[in-house]
Amino acid sequence: MADIRCVADAERAAAAVLPVAVRDFVAGGSGAETTLAANRAALDRVFVVPRVLSDVSRCATGTTLLGRPARMPVAVAPVAYQRLVHPDGELAAARAARDAGVPFTVSTLSSVPVERLTEIGGTVWFQLYWLREPGRALDLVRRAEDAGAAAVVLTVDVPWMGRRLRDVRNRFTLPDQVRAAHLTAGPTAAHHTPRDAASALAVHTEATFSAALTWSSVAALRERTRLPLVLKGVLSPEDAERAAECGVDAVVVSNHGGRQLDGAVPSVDALPSVVAALSGRCEVLLDSGIRSGTDVLRALALGARGVLVGRPALWGLAVGGETGVRRVLELLAEEFRDALGLAGCPDVADAGALRTVHREAVPGA
Fold this sequence. Notes:
The structure is a single chain. The strands form 3 sheets. The protein has an 8-stranded parallel beta sheet with strand order 4-11-10-9-8-7-6-5. The chain has helices at residues 7-17, 20-27, 34-44, 90-100, 114-118, 134-147, 165-170, 200-208, 215-224, 237-245, 267-278, 293-301, 311-342, 348-351; strands spanning 46-49, 63-65, 68-70, 74-76, 104-106, 124-128, 151-155, 229-234, 250-253, 283-286, 306-309, 355-358. α1 packs antiparallel against α13 (311-342), α4 (90-100) packs parallel to α13 (311-342) and α12 (293-301) crosses α13 (311-342). It is α/β, with parallel strands linked by helices. Helices cover 41% and strands 13% of the residues. The longest helix is centred in the last third of the chain and has 32 residues, at 311-342.
C-alpha cells in the first residue's frame, strides 16, 4: 500500500494481480472505447482558476449528500460482482467507505446482499436496475428500505448491456462462486455459461433487465418509496428537467463510465448544461472518469454537488481488499483537500464559485 501514491498506481497494481478477463471486465468500455477515453480527456481539458489570499489554514472538506453528512463530496459508485476481484468483495469496500465517511452504493448485481452491507454501518445507497418484472424491482426497493438503505439510485441508461468487445473476445463468464445475491430467481445460470462470440453477462442482463423503463416507471417508483430517489445516467438537460418534475432528489450525470453508448458525450462536458437546466431543484452528482482530488474540485467548480468513483475502488479492492479501498479513498481525500486549499477555498461551498476555462482557451495551449 505504501507504494500506491495515486489512483493510477492502484490501477497498475491491480492489472498485475487480476486475471486478464477480470481486468478487462473492470477496465473496459463499449465499442471502440471512444467515450471511455473521452471521459478522461474531457476532465483534463478543465482548468480551474484559483483564488488567493483566503485563509485556508483549516480547509474543510465535509459536505452533505442527499441530506446526510459526508467527509468529502465523494460516494462509491455501484459496481457489480465485486467478489470477482477479491473474496470479501462488497463487504470490504463498504467497510472502507464507512471508515472514509462517504456513501457506499450497493448494486442490484452485488455479490453480497444489501442486508449484510447495511449492518456494517455508514451510509448505504441501493442501486436499482429496472427488471422485466416490475414487481420484482419494487420488491428489491422494499428490501433495501427494510435493510436501512439511505437512498435508491435508479440506473436509467441500461435497457441492455452495451457491446463490450473485451468481454466478447474473452467469452467472459462469472465463476461459480460469484453470483448476483439479489437475483436468486430467474435465469441465474446464464452468467455462468460460456457463449460463442458473446459475454455471458450481457446475455444474462438482457434476459433480466427491462428495456421498457420509462418516465411512468420513475413516477411509480417515486410514489412507492419514502427514500431519496436518484436517477443515474442522465446526460441531457431535457431529461434532467423531466427528472426534477418527477420529484427526484438527485441526478447523476453519467455515461456509465463509457460502458454503454460508445460515442456518448463525456459526462463532464454534459455537466454544466444539466446544472443550468435544474437551477438547484435537485442535487447533481458527476460520474465517469474521476481519478483524483483535482477531478473532484473540477466537478464542484462546474456545479456538481459531488462525484461517484467506481473503478478506483475496485482497483484498490483487487490489490489489498479493505485496506486497498481505504488507501484509494484516503488518497482522494488528501488530494481533494490539497486541491481545495491551493484553489483558495476554505470549504466545499467555495469551490462552487470557482471559474473554469477549457484547455483550448488557455493561451499557448
